[in-house]
Design brief:
Elements lengths: L24 E5 L9 E5 L4 E8 L2 E6 L10 H7 L7 E8 L9 H8 L12 E10 L2 E2 L5 H12 L6 E3 L7 H10 L4 E6 L7 E10 L2 E12 L7 E10 L2 E8 L5 H12 L16 E2 L4 E7 L1 E2 L5 E2 L2 E7 L11
Parallel strand pairs: 1-10, 6-8
Antiparallel strand pairs: 2-9, 3-4, 3-5, 5-6, 6-7, 9-10, 11-12, 11-14, 11-15, 12-13, 15-18, 16-17
Amino acid sequence: MARASSKKPPGTSPPDPMPSRVDPCVATLVDKPPTGPQWAYEVKWDGYRLAVHVEPGRVRVITRGGYDWTRRFAAIAAEARQLGHESMILDGEAVVLDEKGRSDFGALQRALGRKPSLHDPREILFFVFDLLYLDGHDLRRLPLRERRRLLEPIVAGREGVIRLSEEVEAEGEEFFRIACEHGLEGIIAKHRDKTYHSGRGDWWQKITCKRRDSFVIVGYEPSEAMPRALGRLLLGARKGDGLVYVGGVGTGFTHEMSTELRKLLDGIVTRTPAVSLRRKNVIFTEPRLVAEIEYRAWTDDQKLRHPSFKGVRERADDATVYSLD
């Protein structure tokens, strides 16, 4: 491990205990960016939210739902050891970039997959946007502007797998317009004077070019035109302690993706549906997989309008599944 830096952030003494896990701050979806000098703007990355815990003798990579995925993000963990501090918690997003520098969730899924891929796992980058703990000091009680001041010397200018998620000096509405024109998912606005709060709140706001959320795959309809392929995926959202049907998606996957996904789903077919649904030619599956879906809006009866499939993940990180509560 690299030698720890002697530079200490402002804080209290004795040292603060390092938390074993921090529930992440989650941005609230709003229709337009907030305005004013108190707001900072960043690109909204399309990947996996991670917290990297650097401790004496070990590094842990923790998902938003609290799972230890250090092995799956081994390159990030290895580089985190070399950042020059004995202990810290970095908050950020793991992504794979396309040829235009945009985060591509499907490419990230392929890089993490068990099957051979065109994408090397070492292509996975970790864009850091917050620093929650540093060398014995819990920074969550500091305003964002102070946390960023301490973060930037650690990761700014790096060209490895760990990089800084840059703040963009621009008016919010202009930045959002440009982000959408360049095919980005959207932007994030963060209040510079707020301390770090776990959970969802208006101190972080997200403005998306299109809506995008995660839904549980509860079954499928076979393709009538292509044998061994999918016609539609059937989707569920969380409500209370269970799942409710929110519609199906039949676009966004290639024929090859469709046949591979059907093969995967045929291995988890069940006679006990996870949702209440009466429909012919439906094959229900155990609710183990989650689909990333881009869509326009919701209908009056709580169904997805104009959905498009973007990727699939295991349901291990259930915190990301859309909730109707």
